[in-house]
Specification:
Helices cover 29% and strands 36% of the residues. The protein is of the alpha+beta class.
Length: 98
């Protein structure tokens, strides 16, 4: 995979209450990924960017909720998330810069 595609596959970490519970309970990290990203692409991108070993990848397409606004009905955008299971001994620390 070329270097440009690696940076387009991973859009960033997904920080939520569920993501932190999953990260504490097991060796998993949650990322927001591109709509057309495949599991092998996500695995390779995480391994190359963070120098860790990936055991498995699960992908989730979360549909955006319809919300009522003052101007009528609105819709949140759809999100594609990847739950990346890391191998034993591997760790990604997003707060390491502090």
């Amino acid at each position: 995979m070329n270097q440009e595609r690696i940076y387009k596959v991973l859009l960033g970490p997904h920080i939520s209450e569920k993501a932190t519970i999953v990260a504490d309970g097991s060796q998993q990290v949650v990322f927001r990924v591109a709509k057309d990203a495949t599991k092998p692409e996500i695995k390779e991108a995480v391994e190359q960017l963070f120098n860790v070993k990936v055991k498995g990848v699960n992908v989730l397409n979360a549909k955006g909720k319809t919300k009522r606004t003052m101007r009528g009905m609105g819709k949140r955008s759809d999100v594609r998330k990847a739950y990346v299971c890391l191998a034993d001994g591997s760790e990604i620390d997003f707060l390491g810069g502090e």
